[in-house]
Amino acid sequence: MDQLDHGACLGEFLRSRRARLRPEDVGLPDYGRRRRVPGLRREELAQLAGVSVAYYTRLEQGAGHNVSTEVLEAIARALRLTATEQSHLMHLARPTPRRRRQSHRPQQVRPELRALLDAMDGVPAYLVGRRQDVIGWNRLAAAVFGDFGALPPQERNLVRLVFLDPATAELYAEWECRACEVVSNLRMYAGRHPDDERLSALVGELSVKNEEFRRLWAAHTVADKTHGLKKLRHPLVGALDLHFETLTLPGDPEQCLVTFHPAPGSPSEDALRLLASWSSPSAAPPGQTATAAPAVPAVPVAPAAS
Fold first, then answer.
1. Which of the 8 DSSP states describes residue 221?
2. Residue 295: which pLDDT band, with cuts at 50, 70 and 90?
3. Which terminus of the chain has fewer Cβ atoms in its 10 Å neighbourhood, N or C?
4. For residues 39 and 22, is the Cβ–Cβ distance under 8 A?
5. C-alpha to C-alpha distance for 182 and 78, rounded to whole angstroms
């Protein structure tokens, strides 16, 4: 699969959003007639948006060329889209011109950012790049989420780990929520970068290897990385409740710094402090010598996948 079919993605997204609405949700009468498909009919949606049925049908067939902003906004209102979903619709209907040649150069992490990650001694943190590739991390992030440095660069990907790595799946106490989150983030990226061949390869691999990924990808949910709470089941220290913040770098919007912290005075704070002490180069968990402790690298020096 060289690239995602942008027209097909537009049509599938519109149909998925239409399917979740009922006539009573949008103030239309429901005469109790049996519907062949769930949700609103195309005729009803076109009526709400103030466009012809034929025009809206062409959009669902992927023919969104030259559609005006006003029409897209009217359809977004009719579909009750969130701001994030409306942004995604705009990207799908108005894709950026395809680059003549896609860059395969690895994303670069500035030395100052590497130093910042290393200096965040008690705060697990990592850098996320294109397609949710992990392109930088500190020692405590590796202790919490797994040794990224032990993986080949092409496997340092949050979506891939959630669906294909049993240890990562076991780590998340609310795995279903995490799975939906990473797929929704990847869908948002796909709308902005439809010609990313490595994205297409990742989606193809996960679709073949994991049924749950196929189901979630087909749902067309979209979300930006934000903030929240991660509930973890760490194999060494047990339950960890960590709040996370996602900070988009001003100099490169395709890189995000994600930090994690426990509530002050909580059991998770004690557990994270204990894990930090074990992950230091000169310490090890009970029953292990310092030299036998799992290697937890600070910030990677090998180039990340592009």
1. -
2. very low
3. N
4. yes
5. 27
Domains of the chain in start order, with CATH, are 6-93 (1.10.260.40), 111-292 (3.30.450.180)
Neighbours of 273 (CB within 10 A): 13
Average pLDDT over residues 150-159: 95
pTM above 0.85, yes or no: no
3-state DSSP call for residue 135?
A: strand
Tokens of 302: 């090998």
Percentage helix, strand, coil, to 5, in the chain?
50, 15, 40
User: E strand or H helix at 233, and its extent?
Assistant: strand 227-234
What percentage of the chain has pLDDT greater than the value 90? 54
Q: Which residues pair with 157 in a beta bridge?
A: 133
Q: How confident is residue 178, by pLDDT bands cut at 50, 70 and 90?
A: very high
Mean model confidence pLDDT for the chain: 85
Residue in 174, 169, 118 with CA at minimum distance from that of residue 146? 169
**How far lies 106's CA from each of 52, 130, 216, 265, in Å?**
46, 10, 28, 40
What three-state secondary structure class fits 108?
A: coil
d(CA 290, CA 61): 61
Residue 139 confidence (pLDDT) = 95
Would you say the C-alpha torsion 260, 265, 268, 271 has a positive or negative sign?
Answer: positive
